[in-house]
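Dear colleagues,

As part of the handover before I leave the project, I'm documenting each prediction I ran so the next person doesn't have to rerun anything. This entry is a single chain, and its sequence is reproduced below.
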Amino acid sequence: MAAITLDPSFNPKTNPHEHDQQHGNVIEEIEGLIKVYKDGHVERPHIVPCVATAVPPELGVTSRDVVIDKFTNIWSRFYVPKCHGNDNKLPFLVYFHGGGFCVGSAAWSCYHEFLAKLAAKAGCLIMSVNYRLVPEHPLPAAYEDGLKALLWLKQQALSQRGANNKWWSRQCDFSRIFLVGDSAGANIAHNVATRLCNIISDGPCDEQIIISSLIKPLTIKGTILLQPFFGGEARTSSEKYNMVKQPRSALSLAASDTYWRLALPCGANRDHPWCNPLKRASSLRAVWATMVCISEMDILKDRNLEFCCALDHNSNRAGKMKVECVVYKGVGHAFQVLDKSQLSKTRSQEMITHIKAFVNYN
């Protein structure tokens, strides 16, 4: 994975066969990111450093970590920009990080830097959810954690007079909630929305008023999906031909396949609806306003475009929200967090501007 900053404290073992002897053979591996051994042991090298909550003072953002569920060790990192005036309530983004469901953390330096900037420049509060990872916690654990974070937020809104959450809740507009994520996190945001519908109606969800009753006083205004991580058994053009050898994208086809083998239920293939939402395209629709951000040099480009088309078509036909699709030229997967080139910095600023406009409009 190009352009990832290595943790200087990372010290590889001198005997590369030590774990082979102790845990058996490696059965799945993405070089530098994850090794899964025959006995179930998992290694994740510290290729990206985890950092504390400190934020550059010039951003004017306060960041703290908050426990969501101590029993499952779900927690979130909050980003709260300075609010001028007592009545200036800010929209709230529930954010899910990427990493193929297998790696990543709300404390990773690349996410900490990006989300602090997003909070400051877009003028919004952010709760970055640290959900459980596969293969130790197979899907749908991450989806359940996302829903649990949303229901936890509901409880905070109901008890916002409490001293423990006053430092952020007094600035939060609980009537303007957005589900946001990148890569696997965008997949989680999409499936949390879908799961919320299924909990209510045990099928395709058409009534926003029913959803509102479950999460009241929260009001979800939209979903923002950054390079959503989807797949399928049939290869797309961008997977087969255009992007496989592109140096500007952090996600390879081989890595994508490995992530899905580790994440999906035993015996499932990449046409499982968690991976390939187009397999149930007739029920695919946007319950809320939706923006999908796509990278031109990403192997997922074609899948993301097909998803947008199906979502927009079904939503318009059902009289629902329109879907906004934005393509970022010349950059690859997760450029906003993993690529430090000048082009990526420019595109990242464009992305923040687009997110701000979408949040302020809806």
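The chain has one domain: 48-361. Residues 1-16, 200-207 have pLDDT under 50 and may be disordered.

All the best with the project,
I.
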